[in-house]
Amino acid sequence: MGGIQPPIFFMEKSEKMMKEIENWEKEYPTMEGVTLNKREKELLDGDEIKSHEGMVFGRMYADWKRRKGYE
User: Fold this and answer.
1) What Rg, from alpha-carbon coordinates, does the chain have?
2) What are the angstrom distances between the C-alpha of 27 and each of 3, 9, 22, 65, 68?
3) In the prediction, which pLDDT does 34 show?
4) I need a labelling partner for 51 at 20 to 30 A (CA). Which of 21, 42, 43, 60 fits?
5) What is the biggest distance separating any 2 CA atoms in the chain, rounded to whole angstroms?
6) pTM score, two decimals?
7) How far is CA 15 from the centre of its chain?
8) Domain boundary assignment for the chain
9) 13 near 6, Cβ under 8 Å?
10) For the residues 11-34, what does the mean pLDDT come to?
11) Across all residues in the chain, what is the average pLDDT?
């Protein structure tokens, strides 16, 4: 009678993350213990990401997810 339903906790956590992900670039610099250099701040403010900077941006995003408890 229907597929396997994910646990309610997982659904609530996913929905919360989807809402918070929209503003992660603004929240990340304000988090306790986060220290950014000038270029990292520029990337989070929307500056163009050069090909060799994708990993820097990805590292910041992964760190944000870890700090929020999404990983």
Assistant:
1) 15
2) 36, 23, 10, 11, 10
3) 98
4) 21
5) 55
6) 0.78
7) 14
8) 35-71
9) no
10) 88
11) 87
